[in-house]
Amino acid sequence: MSINPGPPDQRPHAPLVTETPNPGPPTARTRDTEDAKDAKDAALDAFRAPDPDGPLTTDQGVRVDDTDNSLTVGDRGPTLLEDFHVREKLTHFDHERIPERVVHARGAGAYGYFEPYASLAEFTCADFLQEAGTRTPVFVRFSTVQGPRGSADTVRDVRGFATKFYTRHGNYDLVGNNMPVFFIQDAAKFPDFVHAVKPEPPNEIPTGASAHDTFWDFCSLQPESTHMLMWVMSDRAIPRSLRMMQGFGVHTFRLVDRDGRGTFVKFHWRPLLGVCSQVWDEAQLTAGRDPDFHRRDLWDAIAAGDFPEYELGVQLVPEQDEFAFPFDLLDPTKLIPEELVPVHPVGRMVLDRNPQNFFAETEQVAFHTANVVPGIDFTNDPLLQGRNFSYLDTQLIRLGGPNFAQLPVNRPLADVRTNHRDGYGQQVVHPGTSYAPNSVGGGCPATMGGGRLAEGVFEHHQERVDGAAVRRRSPSFADHYSQAALFWRSMAGWEQQHITEAFAFELGKVGDREVRRRMVGNLAHVDPGLAADVALRIGEPEPGAPPEDRAVASGAGDAAGVAFSPALSLENLRGSGIRTRKVAVLAAPGVDGDQVRAAHERLGEEGATVETLAAHGGEVPARDGGGVPVDLPLPTTASVLHDAVVVPDGGEHTLPADPDAVRFLAEAMRHGKPVALLGSGVELSRAAGFGTPAGLAGVAVHGSGGRDDTAFWAEFARLIGHHRFPSR
């Protein structure tokens, strides 16, 4: 067995500190200083190509005289096969693409760090959770599930939230989603689910969407999907930003302390900016205006130093309480209501560095639920057990062989010593023997079993397992509706309306009437009113009363554990402040320049990004004779790319006559976004069909201008912080 010597220009491998003391607030980091580098950033330096300096060469280092013309017989003759440079150039181009992921193909990634608030040694021996303030490098990849790499960001879909921790004892991957449950209970159904949700085989339609027959046929025949469907039909499936959505580990995992004692755990990520979503019409318009909306938003925020931050929370359940709930902890279609087990914040993650090459890093990063470290272990969740096989199997074909862990973004910071050899993509020259035990090749490091384990050694958690080999679902997994009903009852009125409309939109696109009726029948178990409303909207008969079950008959108090859970509603998850919110100021000739400047200054002080929009670029003449700089021409942007709108005084003869301005404000009003109308700015509201909206939720009106009115701008900032006013 030999030690992986690392990249050729770094032999012997320089010692790297995986976890470093807290160097200060993230805003103090600068990409150009050595002090700013964490251990993973420093390790990647060995693989970063230098700026081009010198002549072009082939892959063999041979200098090239001409890269624009093929070697031919005469000026117009055939190309010669001996032109090794052009053949190499074309061959490399032909093979630049790798197969995209079967699911989660479209993604965006970022580097950062995680640091715990306090030691978790009471529950786990995981090294990166032992000491408060110890920083561990991370790479996070966000993604959609259904669509290919070329689909839009804002489609209705689950979002992946996968985090790779580069710990001192190896890589740990927390591979989750922005929803805490899943469609199926057993991994044996995963190929069926994915085949159903993907575009239909005859025509490869639809792309990046689930509104089609095969998906709803599958779900209508799989009642276990009902709870997840409630989440996917909610606004959780159309997040405002990757920086403003929660993440969940989905499964119940196990923390293990140094004495081998286990504690069940559910992982939660909470964005410090709050949890915010789009509305359906807005999401569709955004896909047309900017299909890269989420990617761009994440990249721009990090580039501007507005580093996304998430708090890691855990729900801890002692092993002796495994059966203390009216649902099964191993069922991935169930969550633990926070009213039964609170979420304890244990640390924070800051994303402070964009990748330098999308393909090399975001595309080639490989996550795997079985990538665990000492102190974190699995449970017998049948979906998790299957994922522990499937992820590795997928990466073998997608990344071309067994050596994908040697790619820079996947390479651990911990030392690697294996007997693995050869295969596609092998980057290490291994001397000596490759078997154990051996006595002729210089010896081989022994495994670390036999007695008390040394620090950093993984040992599987021990538990008694016995029983007959059967293909049978546990009876404790049989309740498919109680938590779906809990989710429905916990929603605000506007959220219930959006869920109803989403079901109607999706099922309205299903051509098979039997599928529609069957799905409406399933919804009757969740809430008869929901089922009746959806049936009416899609032209199906109202379902009869379902057979009595716990979800409907008892308010789910006995089956879900609680009757209501406020933590499930977006109404209760808004953040505080307006940092990174985008505010549009609509300007036209004659605009009050003081008000435009006040919007930039007052809202900018609160952390918002304020942009002045006008019919054209350059400047617009202000009322005082000066000019107001224009950040973006109106025809190049849209209200769906902004969070709030300010219409200052002046321009009352121009703005209402500009169809782009009228449409901009009308869409913002229709989508419930905060709007400020100052002075004659109400004329644009009238032109957009909203009259003088005094008293309308989320609209701040200031008849006298308000350029120096501190209270007005403070109130408008409060409205922006509320994010959305669906009642409008």
Automatic annotation (TrEMBL):
- EC number, as in UniProt: 1.11.1.6
In what ranges is there compositional bias, type Basic and acidic residues?
Answer: 29-51
Keyword set includes Transit peptide: no
- The residues covered by the Catalase core domain are 57-444
Residue ranges, annotated region (Disordered): 1-75
Instruction: Give the EC class as a word.
Output: oxidoreductase
Q: Which cofactor does it need?
A: heme
- Keyword tags: Heme, Hydrogen peroxide, Iron, Metal-binding, Oxidoreductase, Peroxidase
Q: Which reaction(s) does the protein catalyse, per the Swiss-Prot or TrEMBL entry?
A: 2 H2O2 = O2 + 2 H2O
Molecular function per GO: catalase activity
Question: Gene3D superfamilies per the record?
Answer: 1.20.1370.20, 3.40.50.880, Catalase core domain (2.40.180.10)
**Domain of life of the organism encoding this protein:** Bacteria
Purpose: Decomposes hydrogen peroxide into water and oxygen; serves to protect cells from the toxic effects of hydrogen peroxide.
Q: Which family does it belong to?
A: Belongs to the catalase family. HPII subfamily.
Q: What is this protein called?
A: Catalase
Tell me what organism the protein belongs to. Answer: Kitasatospora aburaviensis
